[in-house]
Amino acid sequence: MISASDIISVVTFGLFRVGSAGAAVTVTTDFDDSLIAANEEFLATFGETITYYPKVGASREIVAIVDREQIDNLDGAPYGHSPRLVISMSNNSDNGISSTEVNTGGDKVELAVRLGETAQQRRITEILNQDAAMLELKVR
């Protein structure tokens, strides 16, 4: 008869490998490597070129996925409204923006708020998500 510990000792769940009964679950760096490898193709397929303007330093063009969400209320302005944009790009300073270099409130990006419109500068207001491959920022 097969025991639960026998099953646990041989089961592999994708990127997670479970050892013998009672052993800790370990996430390998293969997961991060896989995210980074898939990132370039993902951005090439769905991204568009925008310009990043750090508060300090030179501007640069990057490829980002722009999610043009609906109009949203402005914090502290009861009658104020503004388009809410979410941009996703590589989480590195070589071909994207590194999470360590983002200055929320100081950095800007230049992009078209609506498809087909002239690009305009908008402020980066918040880091929404990040992992080894991608960085997701809120833009106002």
Q: What would the keywords be for this entry?
A:
6-stranded antiparallel barrel, 140 residues, disordered N terminus, alpha+beta, 17% helix, 3-stranded antiparallel beta sheet, globular
Tell me the layout of helices and strands.
Elements: H1 4-10, E1 12-13, E2 16-17, E3 26-27, H2 30-46, E4 48-53, E5 60-74, E6 77-90, E7 108-111, E8 120-130, E9 134-139
Antiparallel strand pairs: 1-2, 2-3, 4-5, 4-7, 5-6, 6-9, 7-8, 8-9
Largest sheet: 6 strands, antiparallel, barrel
Regions with little confidence, pLDDT below 50 for 5+ residues: 1-28
Q: How is the quaternary structure best described?
A: single chain
Q: How many DSSP-defined strands?
A: 9
Radius of gyration: 20 Å
Mean pLDDT: 81
Shape descriptor:
globular
The structure class reads alpha+beta
Tell me the strand percentage band: 35-45%
Helix content: 10-25%
Overview of this protein structure:
This protein has helices spanning 4-10, 30-46, and strands at 12-13, 16-17, 26-27, 48-53, 60-74, 77-90, 108-111, 120-130, 134-139. Mean pLDDT is 81; it is low at 1-28. The chain has two helices and nine strands; from the N terminus they run H-E-E-E-H-E-E-E-E-E-E. By secondary structure, it is α+β, with helices and mostly antiparallel strands. The chain has one domain (35-139). The strands form two sheets. The protein has a six-stranded antiparallel barrel. Strands 1-2-3 form a three-stranded antiparallel beta sheet, with no helix packed on it. The longest helix is centred in the N-terminal third of the chain and has 17 residues, at 30-46.
